[in-house]
Amino acid sequence: MNAPRRVEPVDVHTVAAGAEALFRSTFGGTADGVWAAPGRVNLIGEHVDYAGGLVLPFALPYVTVVAARIRDDNRLHCVSTQSADPWQGPLSDVTPGRPTGWAAYVAGVVWALRQSGTVPAEAGFDVAVHSTVPVGAGLSSSAALECAFALAVADLLGLPTDTDGRRTLIAACIRAENEIVGASTGGMDQSVAMLARPGHALLLDCRGGDSRLVPLDFESAGAQLLVIDTNAPHRLVDGQYGTRRATIEKACAELGVHTLRDIRDVDGALASLASPESVRRVRHVLGEIRRVIEVADLLAQNRISDIGGVLTRSHLSLRNDYEVSSVELDCAVDAALDAGAWGARMTGGGFGGSAIALVPADRVGDVVAQVLDSAASAALPTPQFLSAAPSSAAHRL
Ligand code: ADP
Ligand code: MG
After folding, report:
1. ipTM tops the 0.95 cut
2. Closest C-alpha to 387, from 252, 238, 224, 247
């Protein structure tokens, strides 16, 4: 069956009802509480997190909800409507590489909080998950799952959940994903899931972890930000990500800097790199950091339509210099621009996943039609379209 082409956000209480129903049918009784955390999209700042750069993501109105109940026998029992594999086992057995599969994202959060001594040895949890965040589309369903559960654990154990408390939870979620799941991730996804605010993007400095909110109101600017999930087939891209990181690390060593962010003389740095490939990679990173600052400045002046050109330049740099785009992403971006988008680019790590297009509200229908047409003419998978109003951070319902 074909997926629907436009996926409208579902009210968070409806998603919560799904998690609660799953909880009742799996575990019996009622949950102690219900917590939601959002997926995200990165407006700009791609492949700069590991270079100590700046990123500008915001939370989507698509959420992952966990219904959870505390136990006193050190066991985790978890089930999800998005997975055929429930998992249960003692939390004391959790270690890098165990469990495998989706339960690692859940168990890893408790493991990481235990490392810092904030979770009593006997604590365990029954957890039921239901989500409207597309899984594996580059919209960070993984961080939504970790953060919804981390907030649940914190609330159930009486840990702080103010901004400082959330920063501790962000660090635990990052460790869960890096060390227990074994996925390399910089921390942008968890930060925005925990710190986002409706009507704002989060300007996050990956060098020190500082962040600030930047107003982002597409509607009052007569615009829509379309998220285009290309539905591209999954590719083995771990190697590519690792190669890009290694190139950047090598360039830092060659240039004698800790991170590329520390470079002051951009032209001098590019001229002194030995390999043409390093020049292109570094040029992307340094240009992208400048583009994030440019977009944040334009947003501060509420010049939404003017960010379009910067988004498109970001895409060209990712495509030509960083070489992480794909035929599906290029097709979606080109079609959106042809049909009147102010700007468009791939978002996320690349090689598939999603693109975004900043579109005047009266051209949305044209852009959707053109993106669908272009994909069909090129015999590519049918994309689906999500709505992207900047939404709330993780919260208890
Ligand atoms: P993304 O975060 O971009 O969606 P990832 O590969 O980082 O893609 O994370 C996807 C993985 O996270 C899934 O394969 C699954 O293991 C886990 N996951 C995310 N959401 C859920 C969910 N609602 N239920 C079960 N597992 C989930
Ligand atoms: Mg992820």
Report:
1. yes
2. 224
